[in-house]
């Protein structure tokens, strides 16, 4: 099984575009995750007990659920709703 390295220069702009999209999605994920984390932190410090209770339930759910289960649920929901990235 031989790999033809001659196709790399032909598709180089697509590789660069994919790299830029990956960096953008990663940066957006970090920003949204940090923002959500700060909001949950502030809610947990709140004196209103129902808000604290809901924040603790939210945290307990996501801390107690393995990432692979969350990823599979996300994938199943995207396939069911036909929202996959491959369907363009």
Automatic annotation (TrEMBL):
Principal localisation: membrane
Presence of keyword Transport: yes
Keyword terms, alphabetized: Amino-acid transport, Cell membrane, Membrane, Transmembrane, Transmembrane helix, Transport
Subcellular location: Cell inner membrane
Protein's UniProt name: ABC transporter permease subunit
NCBIfam families linked to this entry: HEQRo_perm_3TM
Spans through the membrane: 20-43, 55-77
InterPro entries registered for this protein in UniProt: AA_ABC_transptr_permease_3TM (IPR010065), ArtM/GltK/GlnP/TcyL/YhdX-like (IPR043429), MetI-like_sf (IPR035906)
First and last residue of the signal peptide: none
Domain of life: Bacteria
Annotated membrane topology: Multi-pass membrane protein
């Amino acid at each position: 099984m031989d790999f033809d390295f001659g196709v790399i220069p032909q598709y180089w702009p697509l590789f660069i575009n994919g790299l830029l999209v990956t960096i953008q999605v990663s940066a957006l994920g970090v920003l949204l995750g940090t923002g959500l984390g700060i909001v949950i932190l502030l809610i947990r410090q709140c004196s209103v007990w129902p808000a604290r209770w809901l924040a603790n339930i939210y945290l307990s759910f996501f801390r107690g659920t393995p990432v692979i289960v969350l990823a599979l649920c996300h994938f199943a929901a995207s396939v069911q709703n036909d929202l996959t990235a491959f369907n363009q």
